[in-house]
Write a structure and sequence with these properties.
Helices cover 35% and strands 18% of the residues. It is an alpha+beta fold and 944 residues long. The longest helix has 21 residues. It comes from Engelhardtia mirabilis.
């Protein structure tokens, strides 16, 4: 394990002294009407101090400076900056034989991620051996009962204590420093006895980028007068500090690992095989304190002993909180269904996962609804007290905890668990997605093997099709359930994990009685649907299959002068990246609307072509190859434009000249900061585009002529913003702009009064729904109807579309009431089946059917260009909880629409296609919209 950089003690003390002066402790009251030249004081004012000792009766080594000394203020009386927290831990690591500091990565903004190992000095010396033995419990294959008993008898348990994964939930990180100091400086039996049983890992500041963003907002809004209002702007503003640099909610990133921080934490936690994982959060300011046991529903893969352990931990914590008179509760809303949270990942890995939700202060005292004023330091104390209570519980039950941990890992590896397996096809069309999925599995220690030709028995694919037997080509990957991380395999890769019937019944009753239920997060998440890769669940193949040896990659790129053109296959997700990189270098790129053949290779619809004769760059070959390297695209050099078959020649009208996208991404209120972050991350990291972030609050001040793509992230109340600027937006679109809106913003843009789109919200055209559905059915059936030629020429055949002339009737008010009732059953996040128009430029790189992620109550209906449309019938739902009312509203509705308006276009996505960065399949649609849209869907003037 690599320790992070260790500066000298003198350097650390100098840094902390400077910081302490900057954020010094209580200042004298300034004279009314003047600031008296004094800096503003942050944190708890003198009138609202919490003076209780965090560790009453404990003794500490005076040679280890306390957090109070290092900060120049009582620990937890104000928010400590990330640099202060890091400097304190570096100081302690240098001074204490009980602590070792280890780095596990850096954030996007370059801040170090690190954790502190706290243990008896002799155990730190023997750490590698101890972790090796814990690893034998984590992978118990071949471990005898006698060996296991010996290990459990002598090994310490490991507790991973992590705090403030949401950067604006600050009390956890401030508590982490106090906790760590107590464990390394404590000299009494309350600490030494605990360390006889445990190794404690403290991950003090899981989201330093978000924390610093939030603290800067609070400090910038602070004044001399203390504000107790929980909802004031003095406690942060858009985009707040919840997410990381790209605003991802990292507590929901544990499946896909999009964030740098998550990937670093995967690797770090796995090294220690912990038995307890605590995740310290904050919740709404007017609340108290929540911890586990968890509410229903419970994911079926969670260990059977988990709730009992959570109950024991809560019992001991309750005794501590009762002594202070603090409010707390369990089992009310934090359920155990979603496997994508920190504690869920830990529990599925065999540990006991625990959540803390301390009422949020925002770094200053808060007045609750009762009138009670809670100092910030009291909230920090709550996190400290909960942490110590849980550590004492597991220390006292070390042997039992290790025994249950081993049992959970053994159960995952048991032969009976090995009956089924997940199989991933070679997927040559989407190598990037496949590689990304395998990297996700590798990062979490999930075993897999790539094998030769394979016959699967009893196989079901991601669309629900079942085959008794199916031949799978060489290069497929098998992920078996029977392995130490088998619970994660099932939780993350099962296509359709269904909630228990009793829970669904209760949820239904709550929705009908009160208009809202208990589900607050997505109900579908599996990686097969999210990545839209060909895959199956099947009976587990034999274990003695031959390994697959991939053919060597042939370099078909060239910058030889004889090259006529260069091509990139359109199936690859690297194609839009290549187009963006090439156009940024001034290269002219064409998009094909048909597949073609060249150099013995079949290029899919949506492939890219760079013709030498159209580009005047002197080093064109070098530039094209540089764009390919930057994008990861496989470049093929072609020496002729003549097709070897019936496909199009390369100089004809089946190739559309693209235009370099000049992108503006709207931000700030009323857009959702996390959903904005998903789109932002995709533009920046996945596409590598140049873009401008535009402030929605100053939208009228921008010269829109500088952009040919504008993106509206999901948001609520976007209609007002659109109404204020509808004329300008309409003129911009008609002049050649591509306007892209996602989720609720797309629904607001579909308001007829704005005049920006002919798409309509389901709720606005209730009496016309039969007409829209009939039109949709005809669109989906296009090209599949067999023509009765005799009847055609005899003039006796049916006239397609006659039924569309039938006027819809009904009581509008009754229809509105019915629709309002049905909206309460909106899905919280499901995978639905969508039919894909294979002739539309927007759908390049997709199949005829694709899974799409959908959430919310907004159904879009359209009789025009709908490249991606939801299907009807029982095949609509692929995964997640979809009530019949929601299915009725969503069937045959539009997922993605494209409307030409003047020289421009409007593109609507019914839900965020880049949701949480894990929806690789629909993200391709967004890439196409942004990169190809200005040329393929809009009209740019031909140069003179």
């Amino acid at each position: 394990m690599d320790a992070i950089f260790q500066p000298s003690r003198a350097a650390i003390v100098a840094v902390l002294a400077a910081l302490a002066l900057t954020w010094a402790a209580p200042l004298a009251q300034a004279q009314v009407g003047t600031d008296a030249g004094r800096p503003i004081r942050f944190g708890d004012p003198a009138a609202h101090r919490w003076t209780e000792d965090f560790f009453p009766g404990s003794e500490h080594d005076p040679s280890i400076p306390s957090l109070d000394e290092l900060l120049g203020a009582p620990a937890g009386s104000r928010m400590a900056h990330s640099a202060e927290i890091r400097a304190a831990f570096e100081t302690w690591a240098e001074l204490s034989p009980r602590m070792r500091l280890v780095g596990h990565g850096r954030t996007h903004e370059g801040r170090p991620l690190y954790h502190a190992i706290i243990a008896r000095p002799d155990r730190l010396e023997q750490l590698d051996g101890i972790l090796g033995d814990l690893g034998r419990l984590a992978d118990p294959r071949g471990l005898t009962d006698a060996e296991a008993s010996g290990l459990i008898e002598r090994l310490p348990a490991v507790a991973w204590m992590a705090y403030s994964i949401h950067g604006d939930e600050t009390s956890g990180a401030d508590a982490a420093g106090a906790l760590a100091w107590h464990l390394i400086a404590g000299t009494g039996p309350d600490v030494t006895g605990l360390l006889d049983e445990l190794i404690v890992i403290v991950d003090p500041n899981q989201n330093p980028d978000g924390r610093e963003r939030f603290i800067s907002q609070v400090e910038q809004m602070a004044g001399y007068v203390s504000n107790l209002d929980h909802a004031s702007m003095q406690r942060g503003r858009w985009p707040f500090g919840r997410g990381n640099h790209f605003l991802f909610d990292m507590n929901r990133d544990w499946i896909a690992g999009v964030a740098l921080e998550t990937r670093g934490r995967w690797e770090a936690i796995r090294k220690y095989s912990p038995q307890l994982v605590v995740d310290g959060h904050e919740m709404e300011a007017l609340d108290t304190f929540l911890t586990y046991p968890q509410a229903a529903a419970h994911h079926p893969q969670l260990p059977g002993t988990l709730l009992a352990w959570q109950g024991r931990l809560a019992d001991d914590l309750a005794g501590v909180f009762d002594s202070f008179g603090w409010g707390y509760y369990t089992r009310e809303w934090a359920d155990a269904w979603g496997p994508f949270y920190t504690d869920a990942w830990a529990s599925l890995s065999g540990a006991v996962g625990i959540l803390y939700e301390q009422a949020r202060n925002g770094g200053a005292p808060v007045r609750r609804a009762s009138g009670e004023v809670v100092p910030y330091r009291e909230a920090v104390h709550g996190q400290v007290a909960a942490s110590m209570a849980n550590l004492n519980t597991v220390a006292a039950a070390r042997v039992e905890l290790l025994t249950d941990y081993l049992a959970a890992r053994r159960q995952a590896c048991a032969p009976e668990a090995d009956a089924r397996a997940f199989v991933l096809a070679p997927n040559a069309a989407h190598p990037e997605r496949r590689a990304a999925l395998l990297a996700v599995l590798d990062g979490q220690g999930i075993e897999h093997e790539t094998v030769g030709a394979l016959e699967l028995e009893n196989a079901s694919d991601r669309f629900g099709a079942h085959s008794d037997s199916i031949e799978v080509p060489p290069g497929s990957t098998i992920v078996r359930l029977g392995q130490p991380q088998g619970r994660l395999v099932s939780a993350y890769l099962e296509f359709d994990t269904r909630m228990p019937a009793d829970y669904i019944q209760k949820e239904r009753a709550d929705l009908e009685r009160q208009g809202y239920g208990n589900i607050y997060d997505v109900t579908a998440w599996d990686l097969g649907h999210a990545f839209d890769l060909e895959c199956w669940w099947a009976d587990a193949p034999a274990r003695d299959l031959a390994a697959f040896e991939p053919a060597p990659i042939v370099d078909r790129s060239s910058d030889d002068p004889s090259v006529f053109a260069w091509a990139v296959d359109g199936s690859s997700d690297a194609a839009p990246r290549f187009a963006a990189a090439a156009m940024a270098r001034g290269i002219h790129v064409h998009l094909s609307d048909r597949g073609f053949t060249a150099r013995g290779l079949a290029f899919a619809r949506g492939s890219l072509l760079v013709r030498r004769h159209e580009n005047e760059l002197g080093d064109l070959g070098q530039q094209v190859n540089a764009a390919a390297r930057a994008s990861g695209a496989a470049l093929v050099a072609l020496t002729t434009g003549r097709s070897p078959d019936e496909g199009p020649d390369l100089g004809g009208g089946h190739f559309t000249l693209l235009q370099r996208p000049r992108v503006g991404l709207l931000s700030n209120e009323p857009f959702a900061s996390d959903q904005f972050g998903h789109l932002w991350h995709h533009l920046d990291v996945r596409l590598g585009l140049d873009y401008s972030i535009l402030d929605a609050q100053s939208f009228g001040s921008y010269d829109l002529r500088r952009f040919n793509v504008l993106i509206l992230p999901p948001g609520y109340g976007v209609g007002g913003l659109l109404a204020d600027h509808a004329e300008d937006l309409a003129a911009w679109v008609e002049g050649g702009g591509t306007l892209i809106a996602c989720g609720p913003s797309a629904a607001d843009l579909a308001d007829e009064e704005l005049g920006l789109s002919d798409v309509r919200r389901h709720s606005d055209v209730l009496s016309e729904i039969p007409v829209y559905r009939a039109q949709a059915e005809h669109a989906l059936a296009a090209g599949t109807i067999e023509v009765d030629v005799e009847a055609l020429f005899a003039g006796t055949g049916p006239v397609a579309g006659d039924e569309l002339l039938t006027e819809a009737d009904g009581d509008d008010e009754a229809l509105a009431r019915r629709d309002d009732w049905m909206q309460r059953f909106e899905p919280y996040g499901v995978f639905l089946r969508a039919a894909v128009d294979q002739h539309h430029w927007l759908t390049a790189g997709t199949g005829e059917v694709m899974p799409v992620f959908f959430e919310g109550s907004h159904a879009l209906v359209n009789s025009g260009d709908t490249p991606v449309r939801l299907v009807a019938g029982p095949g609509l739902r692929l995964a997640g909880l979809l009530w019949p009312e929601a299915a009725d509203r969503l069937q045959l509705s539009a997922y993605a629409t494209v409307e030409g308006r003047g020289a421009g276009q409007v593109i609507l996505f019914a839900s965020n296609p880049t949701f949480r960065g894990s929806m690789r399949g629909t993200a391709r649609l967004f890439s196409n919209a942004v990169v190809y849209g200005p040329g393929a869907g809009a009209s740019a003037p031909v140069p003179r």
